[in-house]
Amino acid sequence: MSNTSYAWSVLPALLRGLKVSVEATGLSMALALIAGVPVCLLRISRLRALRVMGVAIISVIRNTPLLAQLYVYFYVLPEFHIELSPLVVGVLGLGTHFTAYIAETYRAGYESVPAGQWEAAAALNLGRVITLGRIVAPQALRPTIPVLANYLLAMFKDTSVLTAVTVTELFGATISLSNESFRFTLLYSMMGLLYLAVCYPAGRIVALLERRLGSV
Amino acid sequence: MTAKLAPETAAGIPVEFRDVCKRYGDHVVLDELSFAVSPGERVVLIGPSGSGKTTVLRCMMGFERTDSGLIQIGDAAVLPSGRGRAQQRRARAGLRAARDHVGMVFQQFNLFPHLTVMQNLTIGPRHSRQASHAEIEQRARSLLDDVGLASKAESYPGQLSGGQQQRVAIARALAMRPAVMLFDEVTSALDPETVGEVLGLIRRIAESSTMTMLLVTHEMAFAAEVADRVIFMEQGVIVEQGPPAQVFNSPQEERTRRFLRRLDDKGA
Amino acid sequence: MHLTSYEIHTILTGIGKTVVIAVLANVMAFPIGIAAGMARLSRWWIVRFVTGVYIEVFRGTSALVQLFYGYFVLPQIGIHLGSMTVGTVVLALNAGAYAAETARGAIQSVPSGQMEAAAALNLSWLTTRFRIILPQAWRTMLPSFGNLAIDVLKGTSFLSLVGVPEATATITNMSLTHALKPDSAYVGLLVIYLVLSIPLVIVVHLLERRAHRHLRPVAAKAT
Known about the structure:
Chain A is an all-alpha fold.
């Protein structure tokens, strides 16, 4: 089969893989955005013990490879009789990995709000919770958006690691196809182009967001 | 400190602007500006912000490229930005020659923060290979002594006050033995208490050297003391020029009078 | 955990490989990054463009994908390098692309007055870049470079998937051959990387202190 006709024939499989990549990214990002909040709260807590816990969690996750963390979920959980599908394991691993980074981003945003805001709120007797929710968080959020967008992009690229726990996203699909047909160059180039097709425009959008909204 | 400054500063050379034009889009910054400065003359440029006086200095150093016209500094010519490889090469050579003759002191000092004071003073002469290491170092130390900061030789700029930093910046410029010195609002960023020490240093430099000096400043009293000629600029043209007594006490032009009146109102 | 001395030796060799790859890749990545960052600011369009393509390609795909590309595609065009070499170079190029953007931003953050002061002193292009601008930009680059160094360390784990016997591959094998139980193996793997990251963090911290030494305040005094 010529290269061109082969390329067309495998395109659907690759696109299916791309769909899985996108799904995994979305689910993981949702997990990370939500889980980032409690971890951030730990990190900025006034209680030293909680702060230490927060730092420990974040440090462990940020200083160890995503691959190793995925293996932990994939191989260790069954030992405790928790059987999860590869996609769930993947989302769990990817999501918790980025939770650490996003928690730090939330913290940076939080610390970027000037002390004067807290003082003014205190002078108006608003209370810590209200101040955090109505005064500080809205201001902290704006510059964090480009950073979060950046992480979304990084997460999408990292879905390729999910291949190691048998998730058939774009990278995994490419590998199994090339193991059958040995057309490495063609398949890998197609995969690379598909990744770039998503990442390059997304990168430009992130850069635009950075310019418009500033950065922490 | 009335000691004479290290006398080995170069003799002044002439400076001439001939029909120099510069615009930013629609905004004309310099409008066919022409004037000549004799060797060793002290010229002070005054005028409202946006008048182009700082641009005059920056064009001499090539920080802004002129659109047309010629700036002659001694035997070096600063040419406008042009097309064509040969013209650009000539322009670059002219700029290098000009920078050999001219020293500049900036409003924001622009000392190199990661180098000590001594390193700031010696890095320029070292790389233009003016003299041996020993001579360069000795000259730097004597300049530092002249500006009263000998004890700060190994300090970093971040450890000095604004006035001290500016004095180091002046010494750094002098270390290059310029024939022309440019002072771009060098006291505008200083606390009022330290303005005097920097102005005093500039006065001593004026008294003990024969360099051509161009100063942009808002310190009118100082300008009256030091200047041989005062040039008042507005919107890119020279409105009036002459000896300080004339320009400050009996200005010929209405615009000059208006500018001086505004300064008086602000209590400058 | 009953490990034979042979197995312990294998694990240590694997960790050693991880360290070697990480160090080599980092040592290559930072000069590449600084050079590419400066190239992005070159006055020649072609230099900016080519560097830009390099940066976009290596930042737009994951290191794992680049690794497989290098491992499978290079032999097809006749370049046969060992998997460890390919892995190290890919990691270096990948980190270099990120470092380039950091370097570019840091260089641009140096106040323009510094370039002007250097020009006023007629310092050459080379001297201005290397003695005035880069030392100041370096201070800004360090924290990001520190993070990148750790990312490179983490990236070495991908080499396990192309058959390089580094730490992750070694531990995974131990678990598959039941020499280790899964929880000890993989949690142990995390511990290994944590421990390896400590010297990196210390080195970066020391470098940051050194880079800030000229900013440390002296006992305050008036003029």
